[in-house]
Design brief:
Length: 439
């Protein structure tokens, strides 16, 4: 579950960093809480559809490319190319954030900056330093190998949560507190402007297939439990931080609430925790980026040489971009709007709707296997006193009918999710054009 860690959205990275508390200030507590839960529900459903799609593929071979090969083969390269670009851009943005934050962190730890070496306050030094840390992590083949670094990142997140809740409980922000609205909102435009921040906070779908491939026994109950636990935990944390952060400062809360706290060792450690969280998320972007690049050109297991070459290429290019470019706001605004919505909503919905069609040979093969399993289980559960096995056949027929009804409903919901993703993409593109890039 730690590897289904949810990364920050790919928007407003530098000049504007609206967080959940700031979104709550624009939406009000009631609507803001509903939107956070709704975003978690739709993102979780996208993850669930990915687990259902994986059943139609060979065990351990699940990927967006493998699905597109049997659903939309002509667009397979486009899908994986978009995923690779999205993950690469997000990885670069993480390096840029590290370069932006670490000089400030050092100023918080060093009382007199004149006594410290000048390079400690240079963004390029910290980008290089963190690259040396994440390079070995990026060369790990399995996501499972990153579980310990994920635990460290989750510890950093836990510290941030404790800090926000502590300041709310201590009441040391009352002097700067503004109006608090439980129902009143700031209007449709501010609400829509903060909508992507909440929606994309749940994005982790690019790693879902890799996790399914690595789970030893990916049963329906087990994979669903992982999704429910991950999304449920994330939603609970987002609601807790949003409400306590908003109640601390009211409508005066800014996007990066940690920057609003009075200078202290605790606040400086919180900024360092953000850097650790972001830095350890970089390998989680390299993994799907590498897999997508490999799938674009070939469709078989990666050799060690090819694995090393692709990883080296991604690391070098992302490092060069992070060192030479100080802001990717405009590019990432569009990459996030298209890439994240596609991975989270559109592709899972379209893939499942296509592959589960009654006339699909893949669906027919899977249905036959499931019907055989249901019939066998019905026979095993039957009573030896029943004549002619009529009860067993009736039980089998009822189970098959129930499965067909559930599958039909799931297909309709998957198509609705894809349509919802298109709407989210349009909303985000409009917001990016008129409220971010234009400024």
């Amino acid at each position: 579950m730690a590897l289904l860690r949810h990364q920050p959205p790919q928007h407003h990275r530098r000049r504007r960093r609206p967080g959940h508390a700031h979104a709550m200030a624009n939406m009000g507590i009631t609507l803001g809480t509903f939107v956070i839960c709704w975003a978690g529900l739709t993102s979780g459903f996208g993850l669930y559809l990915q687990t259902r799609c994986a059943r139609y593929l060979d065990r351990g071979r699940s990927s967006f490319f493998a699905l597109s090969q049997i659903t939309y083969p002509n667009a397979a390269v486009v899908f994986d190319g978009a995923i690779a670009i999205k993950c690469f851009g997000v990885g670069v943005s993480y390096l840029i954030i590290i370069g932006d934050l670490m000089p400030g962190v050092m100023k918080g730890f060093v009382a007199d900056s004149g006594d410290a070496a000048a390079y400690l306050f240079e963004r390029r030094f910290w980008v290089t330093a963190f690259m040396l840390v994440v390079i070995p992590l990026s060369f790990l083949r399995r996501l499972d190998s990153l579980k310990y670094t994920s635990v460290l990142a989750l510890t950093a997140i836990a510290y941030l949560i404790v800090l926000v809740v502590y300041h709310f409980a201590a009441g040391d922000t009352l002097a700067e507190k503004g109006e608090v609205n439980f129902i009143k909102w700031q209007g449709i435009i501010p609400t829509l402007a903060n909508f992507p921040v909440i929606v994309f906070a749940y994005t982790c779908h690019q790693n879902m297939f890799s996790i399914l491939n690595e789970i030893k026994n990916p049963t329906h109950v087990r994979t669903t439990s992982v999704i429910v636990a991950s999304i449920g935990t994330a939603a609970s944390v987002y609601v807790l931080v949003a409400i306590t952060g908003y109640l601390s400062y009211g409508n005066n809360v800014i996007g990066n609430i940690v920057a609003q706290y009075a200078p202290s060792v605790a606040a400086t450690i919180a900024r360092l925790a953000i850097v650790i969280m972001v830095g350890l998320s970089y390998p989680l972007q390299v993994h799907p980026c590498r897999a997508s690049l490999d799938a674009v050109s070939r469709w078989h297991e990666m050799s060690e040489l090819r694995f090393a070459c692709l990883t080296t290429l991604i690391i070098i290019l992302s490092y060069l971009v992070a060192m030479t470019v100080s802001s990717l706001d405009k590019v990432l605004a569009y990459v996030g709007s298209t890439g994240s919505t596609s991975i989270s909503f559109i592709l899972p919905g379209l893939f499942y709707y296509k592959i589960s069609a009654p006339d699909s040979p893949h669906a027919q093969r899977l249905v036959k296997d499931e019907d055989d399993e249901v019939y066998d289980s019905a026979e095993e559960a039957g009573s030896p006193t029943e004549e002619g096995g009529l009860w067993r056949r009736d039980s089998w027929a009822q189970k098959v009918k129930g499965r067909q009804w559930r599958q039909a409903l799931l297909r309709k919901l998957s198509l609705a999710l894809a349509g919802y993703g298109v709407v989210v993409m349009v909303v985000c593109l409009v917001i990016n054009t008129f409220f971010i890039v234009a400024h």
